[in-house]
Structures are given as C-alpha cells and as structure tokens.
C-alpha cells in the first residue's frame, strides 16, 4: 500500500494531491494515507503536506527499491520483480535460495549492504551500505551448460553500455571484471545450479563500486580496486545505473538465448582492457607471459605465448593479469 501511495505521488510529480484523492484512489482511510506518508518520510522521502492542498513529493532518497528503479526501467521481464533488502548476507546466496523456489525469471535481488558479499575463488567482496550496487539476477536459460559462461560476458557488456549511457568510459578485463584507469570497479560472479546436462538456474551477481570512498577499501586491495566516484570525481546515480544495466542486459541476454552473441562479443572486444597487451596467465600458481590476441566467437580468450604457442583460454580456468599490475 505504501508503494501504491508513492507511485501515486510520483505519477503526480510537481503537483499537490489531496489526502482525499489518495484515499479514494486506493480505497483506504485518510488516517491510513497519513500513516503511510509518515513511513515514507522515515525512509528518506521528503513530502510536503499543506492543508487544503494536499501532499507533494519533493525528494526521493538514493535507494534501490522497486519504485525508484522502475522510473527508468523498460524491460519485459529482467528486473520486473525486484527484491530489495536494506541489509543481507549476499544477494547471490539469497537469489539462489529464491531460484530453488522457482521465483520469477529475471528477478533482481538487490541489497543496500552485504555483510557476507562473495567474490570469485572464495574471496570476500566488500559491500558497504548505500555506496555500491550489489545485485543478482535469477535466470532459467534453456541452453547447454557450456554456454553459461557467456552470460558473464553478457553482463559485462551490459555494464559497459549502461556506464557509457551515463558518459562513463570503462573497460572489460576478460572475462568478468570492469576496470577504470586499470583498477577494478566491478566484478561479476555467475553461479550455476544443474545436474547432468540440465540447468536448474543461473544467478548472475554484479558488484559495482559506485560511490565508495578511498577509506572504504581495505589496505590490501587499495592498489587494485577503486570506485567510479573516485575515478570520475563525481557521485553516481545508483538507481539510474541499475535500471540501465537491466535494460541493456535484457537486450543482450535475449540475443544470447537466440544464439546470437555477436553484439556482446563486439562490446567485449571493443572495450577490452587486455587486447593486444602483454599479459600474465596464471594457472595453478604458475605464471606464463603472453599477449592477448582476440576474444573468439564462443567467448574464449586467444593468447600467444612467448614461445609462439597459441592457446584458447576458457573463462574461469585461469587468472589473467597485466604485465605489471592488475591490468
Ligand atoms: C569478483 O570479481 O570476484 C566477483 C564479485 C561479485 C560481487 C557481487 S556483489 C552482488 C553479488 N553478491 C555476492 O555475494 N557477490 C556478487
């Protein structure tokens, strides 16, 4: 009901709407309207209430609730269902639990804060409150298991396009990191549940360091991690970015389901942080020097080693780093 009142106020932007009009529209008492308005104020909404004129929404807080994201969302099913948490352990863990109960395809689980954020290879992912985008998308793709790693690239390409729509240039460090000025601002963790060759569900977790400050990063990752705010000297509008990512994701994911991967590939190639660069391929703790030649049609990275040998690297089996640092 509170969401209905908020939607009504948003639909009547810059106008006063009377308590009576809201109570008629939603078939609730005026006392109830007042109670929900007060609750919205506690959440950070600024609502002006003037007797005989009514209520006007003056300001919406920077939160990633369904109501806030919907304003810029134009998808058919990706992010149509948003589960918004003020705080939770990990959106990937929550999304997997919901997927096991068959939650709607395309559901986005979003947390303002994660207390047990998870990175790849069992690492921790720091996720301070209101400062980033900590989001997981639930999917039930009917594709071969071997195709699933492409969804990570679909997500990376969506983030690149969404940032570009906001005038922010970033690059992809194949396959699942987004970097600005060679430092990581986003990581993607795609998790799969399935048996034999049957996929039950896929959860794509996207973590974006949007508005973190220097002091939010622990000492050990300060030289490899950064935030969009630090690199651009500007606060980013998280709810617009979330909606843009979901919009872009739906387009590229639909293409992927139709076995069309060329647009994603093009974005990944054109915005690659590795292409043509000397890289270190780290496998089982061993490093080999090489050069990143291309991203192949199936998403594999083509590497030429110093001895002239060429190898196709499938995502996930090795770690790829720049010659001197992270990229
Ligand atoms: C990595 O680069 O190691 C991947 C990081 C993925 C982090 C995101 S934040 C949202 C989702 N929930 C998690 O616990 N992890 C992913």
Note the run of SSEs as H and E. HHHEEHEHEEHEEEEHHHEEEEE
Average pLDDT reading: 94
Instruction: Name the bound molecules.
Output: biotin
Give Rg in angstroms: 22 Å
Helix-strand makeup class: alpha+beta
Q: What strand line-up does the widest sheet have?
A: 3-4-5-9-8-7-6
Shape: elongated
Number of β-strand runs: 14
- Give the distance, in angstroms, between the N- and C-terminal Cα atoms: 49 Å
Count of helices?
Answer: 9
Largest sheet: 7 strands, mixed
**Helix percentage:** 25-40%
The proportion of strand residues reads 25-35%
Question: Low-confidence segments, ≥5 residues, pLDDT <50?
Answer: none
Task: Describe the structure in your own words.
With 327 residues, the chain is α+β, with helices and mostly antiparallel strands. The chain has nine helices and 14 strands. It has helices at residues 2-11, 19-26, 30-42, 66-70, 91-100, 149-165, 228-232, 238-257, 262-270; strands at residues 46-50, 54-59, 82-85, 108-111, 133-139, 171-173, 177-180, 183-195, 198-208, 278-283, 286-295, 301-305, 310-313, 319-322. It has a seven-stranded mixed sheet, with helices on both faces. The model has no long low-confidence stretch (mean pLDDT 94). Biotin is lined by residues 90-92, 114, 117-120, 123, 125, 134-136, 177, 187-189, 205-207.
């Amino acid at each position: 009901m509170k969401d209905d009142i908020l939607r009504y106020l948003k639909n009547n932007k810059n106008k006063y709407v009377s308590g009576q009009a809201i109570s008629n529209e939603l078939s609730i008492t005026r006392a109830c309207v007042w109670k929900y308005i007060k609750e919205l104020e506690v959440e950070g909404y600024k609502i002006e209430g003037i007797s005989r004129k009514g209520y006007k929404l003056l300001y919406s807080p920077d939160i990633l609730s369904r109501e806030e994201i919907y304003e810029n969302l134009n998808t058919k099913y990706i992010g149509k269902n948003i589960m918004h948490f003020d705080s939770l352990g990990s959106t990937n863990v929550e999304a997997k639990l919901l997927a096991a109960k068959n939650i709607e395809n395309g559901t986005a689980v979003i947390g303002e804060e994660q207390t047990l954020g998870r990175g790849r290879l069992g690492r921790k992912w720091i996720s301070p409150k209101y400062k980033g985008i900590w989001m997981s998308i639930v999917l039930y793709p009917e594709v071969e298991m071997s195709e699933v790693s492409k969804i990570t690239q679909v997500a990376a390409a969506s983030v690149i396009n969404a940032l570009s729509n906001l005038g922010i240039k970033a690059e992809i460090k194949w396959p699942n990191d987004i970097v600005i000025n060679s430092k990581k601002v986003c990581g993607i963790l795609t998790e799969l549940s399935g048996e034999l060759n049957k996929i039950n569900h896929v959860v794509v977790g996207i973590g974006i360091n949007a508005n973190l400050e220097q002091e939010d990063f622990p000492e050990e990752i300060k030289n490899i991690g950064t935030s969009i705010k630090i690199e651009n000297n500007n606060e980013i509008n998280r709810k617009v970015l979330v909606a843009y990512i979901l919009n872009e994701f739906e387009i590229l994911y639909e293409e992927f389901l139709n076995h069309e991967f060329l647009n994603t590939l093009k974005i990944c190639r054109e915005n690659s942080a590795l292409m043509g660069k000397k890289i270190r391929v780290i496998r089982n703790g061993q490093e080999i020097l090489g050069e990143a030649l291309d991203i192949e049609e199936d998403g594999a990275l083509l590497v030429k080693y110093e001895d002239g040998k060429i190898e196709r690297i499938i995502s996930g089996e090795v770690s790829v780093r720049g010659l001197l640092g992270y990229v």
